[in-house]
Amino acid sequence: MTDAPLPAPAPRRFRFERHASTILLLASVALYVALVVIMGQTRFLTLDNLVAILGRSITLGITAIGQTFAILVASIDLSVASVISASAVVTSVVMNGDPAMMLPAVLAVLALGAAVGLANGLVITKLEVNPLIATLGMSLIIQGVLSYYYNNFAGNVPVEFQVFAYGSVGIVPFSLIFMLALAGCAWFVLRFSRFGSDVYSVGGNRDAARLAGIKTDRVVIGAHVICSLCAAIAGIYLASRLRSGAPWIGAEGVYDLESIAVVVIGGTVLAGGRGGIWGTMAGVIIFSLIDSIFNVSGVDAFVKQVLRGIIIVAAVAFYAARSKRPVA
Amino acid sequence: MSAQSLSQTETTKRGLPRINPVYVLVAALILAIIIMNPAFGEPTGYMNFLKRVTALAILSGGALYVIVSGGFDLSVGSIMTLTVIGSSMLASNDPNSTYWVIPLMLGIGVAVGLINGLVVSYLKVPSLIATLGMMITLNGVAFMWSGGAPRGYLPDTFRFFGRYNITDVPVITLLPVAVICLVVFGTMLWWGMHRTNFGRMLHAVGDNQQAARLAGVPVERVRISAFVVSALSAVLAGVILGGRAGVSVDIGSGFELQAITAAVIGGAQLLGGRGSVPAAIAGALALEAIFTLLNLLGLAQPVRLVVQGLILIGAVALATYQRKRSGR
Amino acid sequence: MGNLTREDDVTKIIMAAAIFGMLTGAAFAQAPNFDDPAEFAKQREQLTASFNGPADKMYMQYAGEAMVGTAQYKTDAPWTVCFSNAGVNNPWRVVGFTNMTEEVKLHPEIGTFTHVDAEGSDDKQIADIDDLLAGGNCSVLIVSPNSTAALTPAVEKACAAGLPVIVFDRGVTTDCPVTFVHPVGGYGFGIQAAEHIIANVPAGGKVLMLRILPGVDVLETRASGARNMFKEAGLTVLGEEFTDGDNAKTKSIVEDYLQRGAIDAVWMDAGATAVAAVEAFEDQGVDVPVVTGEDQQDYLQKWRALGFKGIAPTYPSYQWRTAIIAAVQTLKGEQVPGPEWVLPQPAVTQDVLDQYINEKMPPLHYAMCGCEDMATYPEAWGGTK
After folding, report:
1. Contact at CB, A155 and C114, closer than 8 angstroms
2. pTM
3. B218–C contact, CB cutoff 8 A
4. Buried b / exposed e across A146-175, counting CB within 10 Å, b at 16+?
5. Does ipTM come in above 0.90?
6. pLDDT (tens digit per residue) in A153-190
7. Average pLDDT of the residues in C326-355
8. How far apart are the first and last CA of chain A?
9. What angle do CA A84, A302, C84 make, to 5 degrees?
């Protein structure tokens, strides 16, 4: 059953979308450098600061890697923020300061993530519930169960485990290396594995993919398992960074909507089938850069919000405006 | 397609009535509430309930226009916030200001709806992202306008719509102005959706955009109008909620998802083509009734979340199942 | 994608492990301690204790005699004062931040005031502090932590970089900062409101406790302090409900309780929704009982207009001024009250109500701002002369 013929690779021609995320990334880097130079704050151009910028959005980055899979199969996952909260809490509660419990905690959290992803995928494929509603519902359920048991920071992670968030090789934090490695794996899977090409086929046209012999349901479920697993890992990282987990930390970071925004800014099409991991990474860095630009220029918190909203729409319009397909 | 949906309505009227399950749900919930708390059967009980649900009911009626046209509107909550904050800033405690403040706010609503519609129709930004950007932007604008905290009170003439009760009414003893608003605007929304050519075109666009275009439907104009209706209803919901509750900076947050939830419980099909205004309003009633019932049962917030999640998924799964069974 | 049966097995194992995980999680559940009798007693005493410092400037006063020397941080002006803010996501923080920026203007030695806003996210605030350490060129770092435990490593990192750090509002669990500026505390707030209710409601009376949200340290202690006192005084707590700071929800909750019976008092852990609670009684045509609030103008004015038995405990926003003052003293190498700078925390009572009401100020202006003596008052706070 795994011997179905490979779908024909997508035709390779110059596509504006392929390069748009790079253009956006370069534009925001240029803006940042220009701003720093104009304001005479060249101290912001050090290597330390570059690392600080890249390390700003590890949680968002890890989550967005997973979200990319969900969106590539023309689905979406609004439950990531709740999964992050749940896994951060489970991490810190199971560890509870005991280094010996580090492995069991991580395994339990990964299992939790996989289970949520599986449930999401099953509801979407077997019950045919719209992914937005299915994952929103799942998010409410997880949040409810979580806040039934906990209403505050609970447990704590041992010092040994904080290395994940605070340790570094030279000046490069482990967490940054980890995120890039995870992105590398994701890229490898999407680019070279059978599952990866199935993801693109299913996202591009589910019916055609089914006719081509792809078990589309399983691909969608797989994408959701990966998505929730990434959110679970992001939760583990956040527990290590905050030294403990609380039931609101996912919602507080707005990781659900932000992860969707960076994926889309990175050029992955919300309708599925087109895009990729490096675009998402570019999107994450663009978000970090925007934050840093706001910090350097001392933009008022409210103006920040207005600009962020406009930037999200403008960035997506930058890709989408020339598309001929109708959009939802 | 438009003809078909019309004939469906006709058969429903003449033949055996196919009752939308949401009406049964509302009736059952209300009955359960009355059994648990007989005081709910008194006019103060049910009128308070209706008064409470008015804002959400009008909002979901409006949001349904966008849903039927095949999109999402996540900006409605922020429009409500902007309405309340903006009105309090402009009114500056002057009771006579209400006569121009509310029309001005409706004007802002039209503008916001137009921008949403134009961005979706011409810049081809998916409505989820376009209205997400609008939501972030408008929340920021409300904060910028007020400096982060409300700067004025809403005069009593403004609060009249959401707060005032007409007393000494025969039979029902008291009649909140909000309930009159609910009936008036509910009827208008019903008429626009189910009794006009625009409503039929809306269904056609949501059902199949390309087919509708070929059939001569001005797709862009219809979609833009849907966003305008949604934004206008959000302004009205803002006026009523502001009247009921007074000024606060995040008064509308969370309403966007509740409105979609209410519409979905009322059987609306996401991504378009199907939906009924009375059922969406009934969906809002059901949602609020569930909350009231859970409160009476002494179940805390976490349980509410879980129940809301399950109902959301359940409602959509049930609708899909019914559609599949009836072979459509 | 593997074959079907194996996948099913894996699924089962995963599910089992997940359930196991959740169960272990539940078994290890433990709440941080928000019911500390020693701290309760200490704060109760501090509420009525006398404070050192200038009598007319509450924001300069401090409890106790302990001071810390800061000679090692003495720096020549101009200074760059860096401030990592948890957010300005509620009106109290808006008033406080205005206090702070106006205070900065009073000190010409402060050359640059760099402010970064974490928009209410721990994750973001940690990154913000990293940014400031990497490129901010700070002479001193002021932190208003979004949450206590989570921000501790970031503050430790700043201390390790040799920066003097001033923390205020919510604390951190390290004593490396120069000082931690805060008013008496959450128990104190709860005590003031509860004492007022106990004095005005006969034994056996029914109290509804309205809270914003669970989990915030300074709010949890307010509730636990009050809860214990109600129990001792023989009052019945009808329920503890969370309002999310939402007026509409507050009104609905009070309406629902009213439908089920009389309410003798409403205790609130924060005042932003107090007026909505009062309106719920008004709209039902019921006399307004004892409703506690906070020092917002809208509540104070409603209280005076309707003449119910109110009280407004405060969590004074003048601590935002004090943080800057502490930073300036540190950079001058002076003695600073520390390692904790405990500020007075007065309540607005009926006797002094009139002096705190100013109808020219915005509805959610916090009257206990200690800002009336500044030249830019009231315009900078959104008021009119």
Report:
1. no
2. 0.89
3. no
4. bbbebbbbbbbbbeebbebbbeeeeeebbb
5. no
6. 888 899 999 999 989 888 899 999 999 999 999 999 99
7. 94
8. 34
9. 65
